[in-house]
Amino acid sequence: MKLVVAVFVALMVPAAASSTVDLSGRWTLILTPGTRPGVATDMVDCVFTQKLERLVIKCGKGTGSMFGATRDRLFVFRTDLEKGWVTFSGELDGSSPTLHGAWYFVVPSASFTRNGTFTGVRLLKP
């Protein structure tokens, strides 16, 4: 978890000369739990809005926003829940408009953690 926080903090610090790609648009995220690699268990459509290096992501219907940052081809975003948080981190594939990364779901009071991987496919670029 400390590594995810360190990456998040590093991405939030402005860069003097950054070649950040634009992640704005509609994406489908395909989430795979770590306990069953290779088996997609959930798909969710999200809208990414990017201003400079800041990201705002809204997924599904009626859910809150996730906030994060991107630099170069790397990104991280997170949302706080009532008793925990969910963090996504990864990178944009250099050869196609595809995201690859990992997700972490943590509820400290219940000593509950889940993690896995995800792939994101761009649906529409503004």
Structure write-up:
The protein has one helix at residues 2-12; strands spanning 25-33, 42-51, 54-59, 65-71, 74-80, 85-92, 98-107, 112-124. The protein is globular and about 40 Å long. It has one domain (2-11, 21-120): Beta Barrel (Lipocalin), CATH 2.40.128. An eight-stranded antiparallel beta barrel has the order 1-2-3-4-5-6-7-8. It starts with a helix and ends with a strand. The chain contains one helix and eight strands, in the order H-E-E-E-E-E-E-E-E. It is mainly β and 126 residues long.
Topology:
Blueprint lengths: L1 H11 L12 E9 L8 E10 L2 E6 L5 E7 L2 E7 L4 E8 L5 E10 L4 E13 L2
Antiparallel strand pairs: 1-2, 1-8, 2-3, 3-4, 4-5, 5-6, 6-7, 7-8
Short description:
The protein has one helix and eight strands; from the N terminus they run αββββββββ. It is mainly β.
Fraction of residues in helix = under 10%
Q: Under the CATH scheme, which class?
A: Mainly Beta
Return the string of H and E elements: HEEEEEEEE
Structural class: mainly beta
Number of strands: 8
Parts with pLDDT < 50 across at least 5 consecutive residues: 1-17
In total, how many domains does the architecture comprise? 1
Radius of gyration: 14 Å
By CATH, the topology is Lipocalin
Strands of the widest sheet, in order across it, are 1-2-3-4-5-6-7-8
Through-space gap between termini: 34 Å
Q: What portion of the residues fall into strands of 2 or more residues?
A: over 45%
Calculate the mean pLDDT score and round it: 82
Counting H and I runs of at least 4 residues, what is the number of helices? 1
Give the CA-based shape. globular
